[in-house]
Amino acid sequence: MHFFIFILTLLSIKFLSAEELNLFTTRHYDSDVEIFKDFTEETGIKINIISGEAKPLEKRILDEGESCIGDLFFLADAGRLVSAEKKGVFRKVNSVSLKQQIPEQFRSNYWFGITKRARIIYYNPTKTSLKELENLNYEDLSHQRFDKSIAIRQSNNVYNQSLVASMIENNGVLKTKEWLKSFVKNFSKPPSGNDRAQILSVASGESKLAIANTYYHALMASGKKGKEQQNAAKKVKPFFPNQKNRGTHMNISGIGVLKHSPNPSNAIKFIEFLLSPKAQKHIVDNTYEYPMIDSVEPSTIIIQMGINFKQDNQTNVSSYGKWQKEAFKLMKDANWN
Ligand SMILES: [Fe+2]
Fold it and tell me: Which of 108, 116, 198, 306 has the most CB atoms around its CB within 10 Å?
């Protein structure tokens, strides 16, 4: 009898550890689940999804330590990936194919960018001419001509922290500190709401400019958020800043293998699968992010927004994590609520 139980236990351990992967994810897309099913069909490896917010999931992984059954951690924003890396959440991964496919600035030894997103400016062409925005940089948003005209969400938002961190990386702490003082004075209202709320503020004429990630505008334009938001999306136009210098601020959604993953080789296989043209196409068509690999086209809506802009190809996204705390401190000091 004992022997029988022993065999059963062995079998169940084998089943759990060899044929399943436990994925911790902060992404809440049904489309992600669909593509994970394809991976299961191709490999026989089942994906169990544990979804939640970044901080509680990270805490759970750290608290559980060696007994954590998780294999992978999928996060939005490089700032969060670096923060998890620093706490020792991930294990080092050596994959030639991942290195070849992902440009150096979008990966580390511990995590890998799967999709890209741009944080850009939106304007209402009936109120602001394109001429007014010619050659505009993020740096110019502190100018007095934009007094009380910019809509942006709160400083506790990681996308904003990463944007400011990229400015620290490129312009230094002192210049960014000065820039923030004037930039915050240009807010049209006290920051509140998500990225879509900022775009709505420009559509209604309440604000002259908004800052938001590209996929939010695409999501509104798709009609998936209702007719009202679709109409609002039509009223605003995207503007890609910093075209004459480093390029538009880019961020990533990325994934890493957990330090105590019971199945690291399958976990790497899964990351490699996410970089395959089929998976990339499926993800970007549903989430309106930019693909990490060049052979895949973004979704039609994203193409319509314009894809021939210069992406920041010189700033390593790791720097968003490096400067995250400093960025947040400077934002708070500048009274960015
Ligand atoms: Fe988002």
Answer: 198
